[in-house]
Amino acid sequence: MTQARPGPAASAFLWERETEIADVAQAVDALRADASSSGSLLVFGGEAGIGKTALLAEARRTAEAKGCTVWSARGGETVTSVPFNVIRQLLQPAIVSLMPEEAREYLGDWYDIAGPALGIAEPGDRQADPQGVCDGLVAAVRRLAKREWPLVLMVDDAHWADQETLRWLAAFAERLDDLPVLVVVARRPGEVTGERARHLDAVAAAARPIVTLSALTPDATAGLTRATLGGHADAPFCREVWAVTGGNPYETVELLAKVQDTELEPVEASAAELRALNRSARGRGLVARLEGLGIDATRFAWAAAILGTGISLDLAAQLAGMPLDEAERCADLLGAARILTDVEPTSSQLTGSELEFVHPLIASAVYRSIPDALRTAMHGQAAWAVTESGRGAAAASRHLLEVHPDDDPELVEQMREAAREHLAVGAPDAARRCLERALREPPLPEVHARVLYELGCATLLTAPATTIGHLRAALDRPGLVGDLRVDAVFRLSQALVHNNQLDEAVRTVDAEAARLDPGPARMRLQAVHYMWEGIHAGEDHVPGRSRGLAELAGTCTGRDNSERALLILRGFDAMTRGENAEEVVELCDRALVNGRLAPGLGWTDTEWGLELLMMLGSSYAYADRLDRAESLFSEALRSYTTAGWSGGHLSLAHAFVGLAHRRRGRLRDAETTLRESLCIAERVGRGLPLYWSATCGLVDTLLARGDVREAWAIAEQYGFAPPYPTTIVLPDTRSVRGRLLIAVGRVKDGINELEAAEKASAVRGHHNTVMAPWSIDLARALASEDPVRAAALAVDARRRAERFGTDTAIGEALRCAAALESGQRAVRLAAQAVAYLEASPCQYEHAAARVEYGVAARSVSELNKGLTLARSCGADGLIAKAEEVLATGRGLR
């Protein structure tokens, strides 16, 4: 048990914290030992007043004494709605120390993405992607950390940190393995719910086991009491101090300070007075103590509580309605009463004098002591003062959220502007709160629909079900006209699709299109109709859909984006149905302008969404125009990376670049890119179509490489099994799953899966044997069990391949036919397959055909050609097969 202070300069809050202090010292020493070592994360938890803040202060002293750079920040109960508040505090020392050009140099490509969130750069014109901003902040801290090594980051009261900071903290904690940074976090348990709780849990999961701080023991309380009041404090008095405070360090220190103030003798006869003194040190007792300092000091403390964090003396004086010299006097009084204290310069956010509450418990008690009506009024005054200070609508919105609705059109406009500012820096949740508050005002009738529309746009990516309600309400009100109304219908249909309500999405688009006269707006909605039907993978195929799309696209010349969209959709439909590939390419080419995407149809343009362009690139990829597909998908990757869109958009871009690599035969590159896609998809969330695209593409690539064990492990780990998504995934999920099952020896299950693929393709009319190669795989699987059916499947596959007309499709069909034959007929068919696939851009298929031809013809020359191709592709399975045959040498010539 601790009987004396841990050290002469140690805080009273550090009694019985030797183990925790030693953990910090050990972590600091490990950090300083090697600039290339892994980072570490310490999380200290415990109830209010248990000593978390004091422990972080001691950790700071320890780190600085050993030559570390320390950045610290603190959450606040009243400012959890302020996005990026805590991370801005955390990075303030680094930001202040850099000139603007230095900051741009250090942050590089991330400057324009992370800079607005940090308040050091103006936001761009587009809505920022929250995941991209989070990744940008991770990259920013990583780069600055290398400059500042050894660096210690401290976040106090993390349970009151804003959601955006916690998202960053969780992502940063996951990446500490290759970055020498020590992160120390203090939090209370059970204080938060929802997304913030999820992020906090992720932080905890990345840490060493959370250290939960314990209350002081009776012996430690007695030691602290005697160290504070003198050695004459008797045992009954010390025991009562512990009983009254429950061993809570904060309450113990405050109670002992009150004992000193009242000059109470620390003996048994005085012990009965401790409970009353303890009540005066917190809750209503603290408020009474505050009121005892006078009305001016009380008003100033209220103003400070309203401001919350970063309490500027000037702003607090303005809010309290007093001159600066009077505010300084009040600040001194509150400092002497252990209510307010000066902020350490290293954690300052503002350039003027700043204050903070001595303890979060005091801040909460003072804030809650303000009469309700007055507190609301003061928030209104604070919003005005913040706006007048030039900090913008977003900074003022925190206070406007607390103001009672009052039919104020100006407040509605302020909140709409704040929402735009929040969206521009990547804080859609903060934007949602502002717009929801604007609705409660409420807006003027002519504005109401626009606010609902803006709210729907703000929640589209994060809450599709909520978005649906907002956009439907917006469309039911007057105020949305022209292109804005059409855009609202499109976004509503997007939300419905994301919410697995595709039929409703189509009906919504059709109902609006029926109201419009012929023209670009109506054609846009008609294109959207076919787009949603085109990506649907269900078995409720709409009869005549392809015919109707063909008729509508037949009237299009590509003069505007609505017509271009219809041409793309028609090209994609023709590709999936296995129609003539030259016609597919011609349709797709007509949708371009001088070989490039038209203005308004770019990857980051929101008018149409990325689905359309993915269809365009896929049509090229499966029609053997891989150069055009690769160009499109690479442009997508560049566009999303530059714009900082590192969520679902970037995942899909990687997935489709991986598809292009896979089709080209660059299997190593395909695997790397698809793994990156899957990593990003994991952050976005399982079960989404983008998640399936990454997983399916990776399994297909691993099978091509011959790594069956890893393909199965990926399938098991990521749930690559029925039920499948309701949207189309490329390559075809059932075909890939069936081939995987056969590869691992579950032949019967694989055949069943391929037969399910056959049924689904028949319903949808998808007869492209390259995109959905079920017939080829099924024919090979049935070769010995049912040779008659296998032969029929091979003949049908060849017929469909010749209809599509690409070298890859015909070559693959011939490979299948050769595998079902023997003798010279097999050799002739294999030779024909090589001839077609040699002209194809798909090098893996060419390599496979060469090896199979070499085996059938017993040709060393052909086997060596196939081996060379297989090595360039990274097809380890083919390499092993060719080398094995060459090694035996039997019958080769």
What report would you give on this structure?
By secondary structure, the chain is mainly alpha-helical. Helix content is 65%, strand content 4%. It has 44 helices and eight strands. The strands form two sheets. Strands 2-3-4-1-5 form a five-stranded parallel β-sheet, sandwiched between helices. A three-stranded antiparallel β-sheet has the order 6-8-7. The longest helix is centred in the first third of the chain and has 19 residues, at 130-148. The model is unreliable at 1-10 and 346-352 (pLDDT under 50). Residues 16-184 form the Orc1-like AAA ATPase domain. GO terms for molecular function: ATP binding.
Model regions low in confidence, pLDDT < 50 over at least 5 residues: 1-10, 346-352
Specify the structural class: mainly alpha
**How many β-strand stretches?**
8
Strand order of the biggest β-sheet: 2-3-4-1-5
- pLDDT averaged residue by residue: 88
Termini distance? Answer: 87 Å
Strand content: under 5%
Contiguous helical run count: 44
Give the CA-based shape: elongated
Rounded radius of gyration (Å): 34 Å
The major sheet is characterized as: 5 strands, parallel
Q: Give the helix proportion (percent range).
A: 55-70%
